[in-house]
Amino acid sequence: MKHTAALLGCAVLTTALAACGSSEAGDGTVVIRVQGMPPATDQPGLEQFKKMVADFERQNPGIEVEGSTTVFDPLTFSAKLAGGRAEEVIKVPLTEPQGLIARKQVQPLTGELGKWAHYKEFNPQVLQPLSDASGQVYGVPQAPFAQGLVYNRELFTKAGLDPDRPPATWDEVRRAAKAISEKTGKAGFVHESKNNQGGWQLTMLTYTHGGEIEKEGGGGYVAAFNAEPAKKALTLLKEMRWSDDSMGSNQLNDQNDVIKRFAAGEIGMYMGTPGTYRLAKMTYGMENTDAFGIGPLPQAGGDATLTGGDVYLVPRSVSKEKAAAAVKWLLFAYAQPAYDATAAAERAKQLAADPKSAVGVPTLPMFDAAQQAKIDAAIKPYVNVKLEHFKPWLEGTPALTLRPEPPAQAQQVYAVLDTVVQAVLTDEDADVDALLAKAEADVNAKLAAARR
Q1: Which has more pLDDT, 108 or 411?
Q2: InterPro entries in the record, alphabetically (predicted)?
């Protein structure tokens, strides 16, 4: 990355980027500050980022990119954005775009994005959570994902279940979990419950039952989960835990706990993404990776799944000129590499050199089926996972509506809902209606406070 005279003039200030990054370089070069630069502790990632910046600047004379290691912090983000101190490109989790769009804190990018020759080949599913009601698109996603049902194919076989036909409904999950528990002694199904992940997973379970977590009302968002869909979801968990005894004895788990136990063959099913295969293999040493299977998220009338990932947006305060430069960066850094089959093959080849890697794990396609087929063909020689074990997820997920996380104060909402999930899983006499009523009041208080 280059250092212009304008930036060097502020080098003595610890806030150099914030104070000077918004001005142009002395030679008329447009300087944009972009979040998404890896920290110094990730040396390979940082070197790759620096190379990407150099390649971009070479191809786009007149634009200079200054990387930022700033990461999303819900406690400081709004104030920074409101004060005009945010970078020209901001990186946020998918919990945030709808709220930012509603508050008019980010700007529509459809016009600039539409200049890219392949814009119309984007998978509409991945753009929908970044769009407003009129269809204006506000950002570019990175590594979008959709939740599914991860299951242990070996335990399915031992329980007399068909490992090629994962449960499609929650009634089928309940029956499968009971069979696994009774015939193998393992936990048939595990639901996360701590570190905000209980609320996160209750959200996806509620979506599959046709429910909402939040809705607009009173000049902002209010709780919407104190209704039949969430009640049915929690009742299902309560019955599986206490009537069926199919969820094991350890009920206080986050995602790392669950994947670690799954990798050890102790869990039959959990809600997760194909990407959790990497954690199971590379982080937790899953020996029998052929036992990993995944299907679409089971349904109970909602025909929906939760999507997520990181999103890059441009604050509304950014000038038209800088916004145009920011879109060029976003397309170069995040859209084109996902579109380019040759680049995908090269990345796959590099990864495949490490026998501990996981190459070819499916993701939610960034682009349409035709382009995805080209990418799949390009990386095929380097794939080291059994793609047929991901087939149910690949075939079933496109039929589901992708639902983003709650738009307002999602992590605080999840923290409240954690207590509801924990109560249902640890107290046989837990009153679902009373728990949801109290959670509704608590969440509405938090949402109201955030609007002040």
Answers
A1: 108
A2: Bact_solute-bd_prot1 (IPR050490), SBP (IPR006059)
